[in-house]
Design brief:
It is built from 14 helices and 14 strands. The protein is of the alpha/beta class and 398 residues long.
């Protein structure tokens, strides 16, 4: 048996008046996920344990088979692993967003999804001005970057994700608690440095949001994972354009497979992810495929973009994998699910259980669920599963 897990980040949602009380999952054309649901088994999965933040780090860690209550130490250390930034024992890694602030309001957590090249120039300017033997800044992808602080600096500072406070006053959400003055000063200083950068002047002239401030959050020390193969006895791989998801894979000892054109945004190479997943099954037992696009649309509050992202995920990722799996001689088990909801109305994550459906090409085991959405899966046979148990459940499923 081979296994493929297909994750549409943030797909789950809440009923919307504009859709006549339907969710975007119910509105979207999801024929392939519906097939998996109708001819397989369905239910709900709790991906975020009580007491932990409903982030993609916690939720995806759960799906990959690691209980965040045991393994979670923060988001940024996972991203550091993917970026090749080695953390020493007392190093604290912070996510460093490039954001847009206008009239003291946080208006864009992504600086208009700034390009890698533009962002690299801005982060390098920050590092040259604010970097020291105790602080370093590392460019990543688009708006997602990294700061590393020595000697445990900021480990216990209370920081807020910028996507949780869109259109709110930055002063109300500056870092609080231990070392907060130092972390706040870095944010304030970055605004003065970035204000006059040619990259930002050009973006403003083109009507684009500038990266005119950094925002620090998601910090933590390097975690210690038991390798996936040791836990489950299977060789695994992971496909994602997002550093934190790739970082989970690296700590878990999974092979990280890069797909050309995978962007972590609405224009990602959906078909390529599906095709690379099928190719990876030739020499892996377990493949995780993560697609960020629905989550990005949710954070933007863009209902139509989220519906399109879900439909692209269903047609081009799920459809590609499902069609190929049915033609393979080996038995394939496919599981499809979001990691958490990112409701359009809230523009941020919630921790309610998410829909999950499982289908095996060698056995049709239909239950009463007939569509992949938040309500229909509750008629399925799985009930509510604790997400870190899903991998073991798949392996042992009869």
């Amino acid at each position: 048996m081979k296994y493929v897990v297909l994750i549409g980040d943030g797909m789950a949602d809440e009923p919307l008046e504009e859709l006549g009380g339907m969710t975007v999952l119910q509105k979207a054309n999801t024929s392939n996920m519906d097939y998996i649901t109708m001819y397989g088994r369905a239910g709900l999965a709790q991906t975020v344990p009580e007491g932990l933040p409903p982030g993609s780090d916690v939720a995806n860690m759960s799906i990959v088979g690691y209980d965040p209550k045991k393994y979670y130490s923060g988001r940024a250390p996972l991203e550091a692993a993917s970026m090749g930034v080695d953390l020493e024992k007392n190093d604290v890694a912070f996510r460093c967003n490039l954001i847009t602030i206008k009239d003291d309001l946080i208006v864009d957590y992504s600086s208009g999804h700034i390009t890698n090249e533009e962002a690299k120039e801005l982060i390098e300017s920050i590092d040259s001005e604010l970097g020291s033997d105790k602080l370093s800044f590392h460019p990543g992808i688009s708006y997602r970057h990294l700061m590393v602080a020595k000697e445990g600096l900021g480990a216990n500072t209370e920081c807020v994700p910028p996507h949780d406070v869109i259109d709110e006053n930055r002063h109300e959400h500056m870092p609080k608690g231990e070392d907060s003055e130092i972390i706040s000063d870095l944010i304030e200083s970055s605004m003065k440095i970035l204000e006059t950068q040619p990259v930002n002047e050009k973006r403003i002239a083109e009507g684009k949001n500038p990266g005119n401030s950094i925002w620090l959050w998601g910090q933590g020390f390097a975690p210690a994972f038991t390798h996936f193969n040791e836990l489950y006895g299977l060789k695994g791989a992971i496909i994602s354009a997002v550093d934190l998801v790739k970082g989970i894979g690296i700590y878990a000892g999974l092979d990280v497979i890069e797909v050309p054109g995978a962007t972590g945004y609405l224009d990602t190479n959906y078909i390529g992810k599906g095709e690379y997943a099928i190719e990876a099954l030739k020499d892996h037992d377990f493949v995780f495929v993560h697609v960020e696009a629905p989550d990005e649309a949710g954070h933007m509050g863009d209902m139509n973009a989220k519906i399109q992202a879900i439909e692209d995920f269903d047609e081009k990722v799920v459809g590609t994998v499902l069609k190929a799996a049915m033609e393979m001689e080996e038995d394939i088990t496919i599981m499809v699910l979001p990691d958490h909801p990112t409701p359009i109305a809230l523009r941020t994550h919630t921790s309610v259980p998410i829909p999950v459906a499982i289908y095996c090409t060698s056995e049709e085991a239909p239950d009463s669920a007939d569509a992949f959405d938040e309500d229909s899966v509750q008629k399925g046979s799985l009930g509510t599963v604790y997400a870190p148990d899903l991998v073991g459940m798949l392996i042992n499923m009869k």
